[in-house]
Amino acid sequence: MKFWISRNSEVSIREQISTQVRLGVASRDLLPGEKLPSTRELARRFKIHPNTVSAAFRELAAEGTVEFRQGSGVFIVSDAGGRAGLGELFSRFLERAEAAGYSRQEVDEYIRERPPLRARNGILVIESDVELRAIVIEEISRLTGIQAEGTTFEEFAEKPVCNGATLAAMFDEKEKLSPILPAGSQCIFLDANSVPGSLAGRTRPAADELIAIVSGWGKFLVLAKLFLMAAQIEPDRFVARLTSDRGWRKGIDQASVIICDSLAAANFPDDPRVRVFPLVAAGSLERLREFA
Question: Are residues 205 and 179 in the same domain?
Answer without folding.
Answer: no
